[in-house]
Design brief:
Largest sheet: 7 strands, mixed
Order of helices and strands: EHHEEEHEHEE
Strand content: 25-35%
CATH superfamily: Gcn5-related N-acetyltransferase (GNAT)
Low-confidence stretches: none
CATH architecture: 3-Layer(aba) Sandwich
CATH topology: Aminopeptidase
Shape: globular
Length: 144
């Protein structure tokens, strides 16, 4: 299964909205996926897709940032996110970046467990503007 650069950003946008819809009411503040547009996707970085899954990869100086990793709800637990993360590692190596980073919300404990199982470690907790408590966790994985 080889990811491809997205050519249909409208389909990617719809996929992200479906995948992130389950967070409504679970996370505070609401997901930034609600504010995502096709235009902002085009400017976000490399948008890679598989059937029923996508990820945005953005080089950030000393690491490759993994954003909006999304799998269509009816296709979760089939290895699609794992395949996209493996591709992120390949892209980081191609870009000579030694680390992968991503963020997930504090409330999404199942994501924490998944990322830890995939070799990521927590490196920071941050708060969204206007919040006096951590709302996001940053995870990183050094590349071998």
């Amino acid at each position: 299964m080889t990811p491809m650069l997205a050519t249909d950003l409208h389909a990617v946008h719809a996929l992200i909205l479906r995948a992130f819809a389950g967070m409504e009411g679970r996370i505070d503040p609401p997901s930034s996926a609600r504010d995502l547009t096709v235009a902002s996707l085009a400017a976000a970085g490399e948008v890679w897709t598989l059937p029923h899954a996508c990820v945005i990869l953005t080089p950030k100086g000393d690491h490759l940032y993994i954003g909006k990793l999304a799998v269509d709800p009816g296709h979760q637990r089939q290895g699609l996110a794992r395949a996209l993360l493996a591709h992120a590692e390949t892209r980081a190596r191609a870009l000579s970046l030694p680390e992968l980073r991503l963020q997930t919300r504090v409330e999404l404990t199942e994501n924490h467990a998944t990322f830890r199982a995939l070799g990521f470690t927590e490196i920071a907790r941050t708060a969204h503007k206007g919040y006096d408590r951590p709302t996001s966790i940053t995870f990183a994985r050094q590349l071998p």
